[in-house]
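Field: sequence (string)
Field: structure_tokens (string)

Example rows 1 and 2, in order.
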Amino acid sequence: MHAAGWKSKMPGVKITQYTEDIPPGCSSPDFDRKPIPLTIQEGKTATFKAIICGEPKAQVTWSRNKGDMNDGSKYKITYDQIMDEHVLQVISVTGEDADTYKCSASNLYGEAVCFATLIVIETVNEDPTEFRKLLKKSPKEGPSRQQKALDSKVWEVLLSADKKDYERICIEYGITDFRGMLKKLNQLKKEREEEQSKVQYIFVEAISNLKHIQVTSEGSAKFEIEMQLKDENSRILLYKDGQMIPYSEDMEMKHNLRKVGKKYIFSIRDLLPEDAGLYQVDVEEVNVFSTDLPSKFIPINFTSPMKEVHCKEREDAFFEVTLSHPLPKLVWMYKNQTLEAGDKYGFTVSEDGLTHRLIVKDVMPVDKGIYSVAAGIRSSSAWLMVESKLPLKVKPHNLNKRNFFKNSSKDLLWERRNCSYRSKYLGAHFVSGLMDVQARKGHSAELVCKLSSDQTEGMWFKDGVKLQSRDGLAIYKDGCNHKLILSNVQDSDAGKYRFEADGHKSESYVVVEDPPEIDAEEMEKLSKVPVVVKAGQNAVIKVPFQGRAPMKVSWYKDGDELAEDHRMHIEKGPSHSRLLIGKCQRKDSGDIKLKLKNDSGTAEVATKLIVLDKPLSPQGPVEVLENSASCIQIKWRPPRDDGGQPINSYTVERQQVGRNTWVKVGEVPGSTTTFTSDKVDHGKKYCFRIRAVNSEGVSDFLETEDITAGTKAFPGPPAPPKIVSASSKAIALSWGAPHNTGGSRIAGYVVEKRKKGSNLWTPVSNEPLKEKKCVITDIVEGSQYEFQVAAVNESGMGEFSVPSNFVIAQDPMRPPSKVKDLKVTGSSYSSLSLSWAKPDVDEGDEAKGYFVEVKPANSITWLSCNSAPVSLTSYTIKGLKSMEMYFVRVTAVNDGGRGEPQELDNYVIAMPPPVIALRPHFLQDASFKSFMVVKEGSTIRVNIHFEASPTPEVIWMKDNVPITKRATITNTDGLSQLLIPTSDRTDSGIYSIMIKNCFGQESLSLEIRVTDEPKPPGLVTMEEKVPGTVTVFWEPSPDEKYDNRLHYMVMKRDSFKLSWQTMADHIFNNKITATSIICGRQYYFRVYAKNDMGVSEPSESPAWNINKEKDKFTVKLPHYKQNDQRQAPRFSVGLKTHYVPLGYQCNMSCAVMGNPAPRVTWYRDSVSIMKNADYQTSNVCGVCSLIITGVRPKDNGEYMAIAENSLGKAICTTRLIVIEPLGLG
């Protein structure tokens, strides 16, 4: 068997074709839809689906790379007859099921193979005790909706993009999980590198200098690759959005490829909105480069440019343009100055964004001139002509030329008079000038211009020489129009033409083109009558032509340009070209084309060359149709090439193995490829030779292998049975004959059935069936059955076929009825959103899915939007053309077939709904924080949601100054995003956003502070200024000058206490005085810097002590009357409200007085916390403190200190508010 490679219409599919001669109506298998790679969570069911075409019907098998698929409970292989889908289901996937799965489809003429990978995401078993924590997880941790819905196009763009473009692409496609994106992208890059290594090993030596697509100012796009191929004949394929597109190498098509050394330059001419998409370059079947052309890069064209406007003085003038696709704003200019909306100028835009209008209000003569409009790289311009309303009588000799053009704002009336009579005394002007003309030699050409007055005569010139009417040249005047007509253009008529009138002139060029031209009779003769020669003879094809030199002459055979060699010679003359092929061979047959090209155009003529020769040998392998003790019947296939003449007959010779002589045993007509030899001896071996005969001679022979007469051979398995119909009482089957009959005729077939869940196969009849179909009635309603078939020949019964798909013995379902309440729920310039209700079950059975179809208004064909039925009762149609009209219908489907379609009552236009007047306002919820702290070096991302109609203008400011280029602003429908990829401290400030449209404006501000954990303070020194005190000084932290919220905390320890105690916090200077310094003790101090991000390392002081001897003195105590010093408790210093960031330390303190000394108890939310280890309390000389080392959200609440003694009690309360870190959105 000879296998030939064949290109599939579906990328990634490999086709092996067994033969090149396939009968009409038959074809080798191919994939209409191939299985797609899957990434699925462990425990779910993975489903691969494939749709396969080919005739006869292909046999489909599934396999995997790292194991077998014998477990029927694990792998379910089915075939959906309604959808014509072959389905593989992997039940409850585990990590061991992650593999590459192969789908193969084969029939008599070939085999198609494709692969799909299965990636399994393994789940981690959480501890049940942590379930409460899982419930408290923020929903922000889950993958975003956009991330789940990313399609393959986004990954192709990221794979080919530079790292600096990741941020832009993620914003454009709404990717928020950057870490997840980078992880998957690295995985895809590894897979791509493995695939690229295969390419480099097989097809490519090296790939470098990949330049992504760029749009030029001429309205074209191009991208480049430097690539060295191992085989220069390797096919280079270009795909757009997965569809292969043709291209040319001579810049004649829309898509072109130009090769310069190792550089391959792909270009796209005349860009249109539909040219946007993902472009891929493949070498043979493997992708080497991908690049994306966004629709926003497509230049906008003017479908209706600006036109000259005539306007009377003191009236309004209107300029209007229409664009090829929507744009919210254009740039209007006058005298190289950009126009702004105001009292003088106004701008309007249609709802669809296609039609733009400029209004020049209260036109004055000074407004006359050229106005222009720019849309991207395209522009359009036109004149504004102003006609004065003041009919003043002014004598010509009173007009002074210098004063005539003087523009004096002090004398507006004089200016109006000058403008009114300017045309009267300076003559007519051109309304439309001459335009360049390209004329074909021997044809006519016309030059036309138009003046502002029909009373003005003019003169025509060519290359400075005045022209008069003559033979072949006519000059006409029709009112304001002046024409020059060349009736028979020749080379001498080329040149520069000029028309002059009243001191004004207009010039243009006439270019004479003389493209190649081939005589029409000669072209018709060559195209209809082929050139026929016999093998070994010479072939000559001569074509006369005419046209301007130099002429490029190229001959092609079957699309490939011919080059001269020892057999082929190309003769090129000034008026003809001749192709000579010496000693023609059969392979020289084909389509011959001559292509002529000069600087004026091209011409082509095609003919067919047929070289006659003897046929090739018949094709094998020879098939033994019957082999018995009395006869042998064989079959072969016709020759691959009949030599250009029909096969007249086949001669058959036979040789008994062991003998040297060949005996001619028969001859059959050319239309027959079978032969029966009935004179054979049982048990002896024979060999046969077959030759093909045509009018040119006899072919070489095809020889069979040894065939033993009467050898037993069982038939092969037939094709799997197909379910023709099924009901509750009978099931009808049909099947195909086996490829291998075993050398004898098929006598019948044995059919067996098996219930689902049973291992027992039972025959459906006592005798073999003669036909390849049957009806089984011995069934139980509601049960599922599968069937297998085996063929029977003279040797006996062969192997059973692959079982059929399971079928349920039940009456067929009724197709569903029409869907209800079909309506449009949303629309844009490229999409329509639909919804509907399920159909009633009274007129049909329940629907299992729905097909959505659209039909453009200018077409009669309905186009399906979904290849597989959707189960939801809503659908969004994408990829529509802006402002086009479409008809839409929805059809319900189930196992009984399709129901009747339900169509919308009227057509729908692809455009957004009408704009509703809506004043701008922000849509911020309670989670929005007006203050956020960001660590230096991290990303700042602020998303502001708003609502406004029409679309508002969005302005960002920082500290009342426009945002710098460090920040990227992205505005979409209802969302504005501020993004700073890598922040530093200079980004701190007050950020404000203002949104405004014609119905109002609104502003919103937030403060962003960029900081980091502070550096520790500098050197700590001490000084005693007052006895019994010590003043501690320290050098400021280096971060103090960047952070105005940075402060200090001082802690102290003496030699009698080993624990450090907070002496003071929230100190915004660089010194503090410690009191109650006791002589004889050593003191140590620590100074910390603190800000919104945390606490620095401490700066420690050296030991401090005071050694002072006390003088002896005596005190004479006075005698006082003893008073009652007892008093009830009272708070001399109360508690204050505390706002503490999450995780920071909180210190609460108050002062209490009383005698006897009161006992202080602390409460939180009326619950005592004295025995709670999370809280530390102290009472030193009436100063009561509560310390919370690291506050948590649960510490929020009301705190109360109660002081009690025998005379009463006092209460002091406060609140602690824990500040949680702000999110970035």
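Row 2 begins here:
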Amino acid sequence: MRNRGEASTLDGFWVKPDWPRTGTAAAWPRLSGYSLSRPAGRGRPVRSVRLCSAPLLRSVLPVPPGLPVAGVGMRAVLAVLAAVLAVGTALSRPGLLPHGPARGDARLRPGDDESSPGLLLRRALRLYGRAGRRLYVGTNGVISTQDFPRETQYVDDDFPTDFPVIAPFLADLDTSGDRGNIYYRQDDSRDVLEQAVGYIQAGFPRSAGTFVPTNAFIATWEDVGAYQELSQDTEPSTKLNTFQAVIAYNDEDTYTIFLYPSGGLQFLGTRPKESYNVQLELPARVGFSWGDGDDPKRDGLFHSLASSEQALRSNTGIPGVWVFHVGGAEHVEPGGGEGAAPAVPQSPPEHPNPGTASYPHPLSSHTSMAQRDVFRAKKAKHPPPVICHCVSNLSPLSPVFTYSAASKETCAQHHGRCSPHAFCTDYATGFCCHCRATFYGNGRQCLPEGAVHRLNGKVSGSLRVGRASVRFQDVDLHAYIVGSDGRAYTAISGVPQPAARALLPLLPVGGLFAWLFALEEPGSENGFSITGAEFTQSLEVTFYPGGETVQVTQTAEGLGPDNYLSLRTHIQGEVPFLPENVTVHITPYKELYSYSSSAVTSSGQREYVVVAGTANQTLSYRLRQNVTFSGCPHVRPPARQQLSVARAFALFDGHEHVLRYALAARIGPARDDAENPVVSPCHDGSHACEAPARCQPGVGTEYTCECPAGYRPEGRGCRDVDECAEGLSQCGPFSVCLNVPGSFRCECRSGYQPAGDGQACVDPCEAGRHPCAPGDRARCLSRGDGRATCECLPGYTGDGIHCSDVDECAESPCHPAAICYNTPGSFSCRCRPGYAGDGFQCTYGEVMCERWRQSLLEHYGGSPRGDQYVPQCDPSGDFTPLQCHGDSGYCWCVEQSGREIPGTRSEPGTTPPCLPSVAPPSVRPEPRPDVSPPTTGTFLLYAQGQQIGYLPLNGTRLHKEGARTLLSLHGSIVVGIDYDCRERMIYWTDVAGRTISRAGLEPGSEPETIIRLMSPEGLAVDHLRRALFWTDSGLDRIERARLDGSERRVLFDSDLVNPRAIAVDPVRGNLYWTDWNREAPKIETSTVNGANRRVLVHTDIGLPNGLTFDPFSKLLCWADAGTKHLECTFPDGSGRRLVQNNLNYPFSIVSYANHFYHTDWRRDGVIAVNKETGSFTDEYLPEQRSHLYGITAVYPYCPGGKTHPNPIPWEFWWVLGV
């Protein structure tokens, strides 16, 4: 066996820059090819060409001084990069093809994940052997012949993509806030085609010598930035990239040009959105993908883009210019393979072995994987390609290799299974692979001795920590191995508390890597030398004295790009709770491993010390582990070896939310004193304790039996204590106590999240716990999963963290004769001088009261006596109900027209009880039961037959305990209901009484009837225009009136069969309603004055009972009792999407925050539906079960604009076209 030497000193163990940090790229010495996604081609054949990742591309192109360049193991790249920078050769910005608005370019809409409409080409182009008629341009540095999926399906994944792609710089880019521009156009102008053909012929001087393009497509990303998750304390990055892609083609062939100007690439990768606060950076991808990965008949290819320093600068001889032939069906062909253009001499690479293919080497689609492995093996004798190489058409991962004596396998048949750094040996019953000198491994996977290695993986788990349950899925694991001295560093980020801190003692999670890459003593082999990169470790750990048990499974899935080991970890079980501000010290240990041809086993006892301030406690755990793998039966591993861990550390970084382990280990032969270790009866099962009593190890073979916490002694066993029933639990507010054997569990109510102590629950929207903008601009919403989301209030726009005022005046919401005043979060309208009205409606000239007043004042010479009559006018110019002769005390009541109401004259000392005369004289308020006003805050009001119910909201959760009857209306059937936020007044329709009524929410308010009609159903209040809209299913009408019932008029009385729900958008002045005509159901819209009537939705609907307009998302949404769907659309009918497809029998619906709330006739209750997921999150079933009808939300504020209090009669509105 080989000896890789003694371990180097561990001095400076903590200060060496080898820790796998989660921050900048500079902290990871080499990120080229790094990816968090599955290896390309996992599970199916794929077809793509990945040219290189951005850190390597950066070697090609000049970059601004001072930017870090990744590069452990890339000295050749850095040397050439330095040479390129020294001579300053690069494409200047004038070298880009002309672009921008002056050339007629279209500009892609700013945003994070935008795509252009499909641009219909003047003539079809040949791309990958197919004809393409349209091209799409995406924000994220890509062009395709089909529209893009959501960025989460391709941006953070490695090549290949599932759709055709041309990628000059595929990364998570963002042009929000007009940060950068993306231009595109098709062009057939002579100057553009001549410049393009010049670049093409530089890359293909022979084959493209006669190529004459007839058309070009040009896409330019100018000063675009990387996506950032901004908070109030961060500023946008100033690093911006500029690059261009040109597709030049004619009827027969197509070439693509990638152009990177000098200083154009200031960043080389972007951070994945789902990074769990880990500061990792994924390099950009540059290349091509066929997008036909589901077609197993299409094979891919393998080629290397560069193999010499000259080829580093470009593949055309022009720095920053890359050219590719993409018209063929078999492969993408890079330029530069036909010899250099005359002006750019280039030396071909040397090949010591005859028959080795020269660069470029695009293998045909019929090249087998075995042939490609041979090609790689031959190339391995020479310096590796310095740019990058990529393999496409990766077949699904093969099962673990096995050796069968029944059907002998030989090296001649299967040498491709061996690593390129291994040799193959035939045996009597099969063959084995063995790593060459200076490499180590099991022959199938070999790594260079003494080198630094990395592991990437995902960790999932389900843990019970103390009394809390914690789940986590696919959080990141990264390990960094210093092979020269056996050090292994592990970082796991994103594990939620309190699980992350409780995992501190579980050192074996990182200890696996210490065994895999331990420093080998003479005659010994570490784990990787035996198992290679494909194995499964099963670990069981039992903690003492608590007896908590946890299982860990770690599965290695082979080596990925750059020899990164890929690993999946699953943790399940129970671990002891650790409080905050404690540290865990791990005692150095030795561990025996026993080996067979396919398994490794080990067991042992470990001690650790928990330190809190000046106090400490020594605890222990027992572990059993085995590693299964497929080994070579012809090589016998050592029977036993001893792993010695000289130093072991575990810490939790609360600032970065990262759990870290560090170990320094060596492996050698088993010592004589380790042959027969003393085993406690607690560990070998020979004790006499009965479950659930636990055996507590003592000195040597001594032990005691103890009842664990949560149990009481009972004979030889223990009896469970019900902490919840006996009041012994410590569950905090907003939590529920659940008894479990030996303990209890505190589970948070919906919308709350666990606090750090594992017992209390907190609202993520409490002050200081959320990043939302101040409360006058945004609100925090507790999601059902315990996380908080931020949402800007109406009148503001943004992501909820940053909210800026919306200038509503830009949409001209006021009357043409009014002036709009923008205010923070709102706006107001005021009629111009000479006009009267509320700003939304203005009429020319003064109304009667003002004219009469001015006339009398002129008659009195401007100075009336104290007993002379001067008309009293309200702010709108109308007569006030009470009129008097100056200060004489003689007063009377008048109608709105100023006409005196007979019998109301009074003497001095008595004031007549004048009432507003705006309601129709035939309809007087009818006494009803008083309103029981609710408390402040947001709540739902729902109609239930003869009553109106009140259901408060706690965030978006239904506070069912606070529900009660708000208003009892005997003999009524309340159907439609809505709320006026300005005067705090509720309005409802009554199909039994055939009326519309209202009542205030103030103490002592009394319901009053304001309108009588045929069969009212839906109802909507416009709080800005002080207007009321309703549907009448008896007369088949849509009508409107003022909120007091006056100035009533019909908007529509034709083409209506069964009008039901109605909604209004006050800010934009639009009206929406449903018609559940069973023959032709539809949803229609018009302006609030009845103009521009049109059908929005008429397909795939059945009984659209409920309708709501969301002022935050500007979406119109409906609940359909026929299709059982909850759907939404934009106000113009576009963007229709399905939210939920399994409703029961909805009747009415309202939108609030991130939830919908609808009444349901099957459940006879209120149902809550999450807008984002469509899931049912809660329901309220009143004790008195009967059908629920209308529902509305009562806000503590008004969404939208303000009006100048100057109302005018509505009969003038239609004349003015308002």
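free_text_note (row 2): The longest strand covers residues 468-482.
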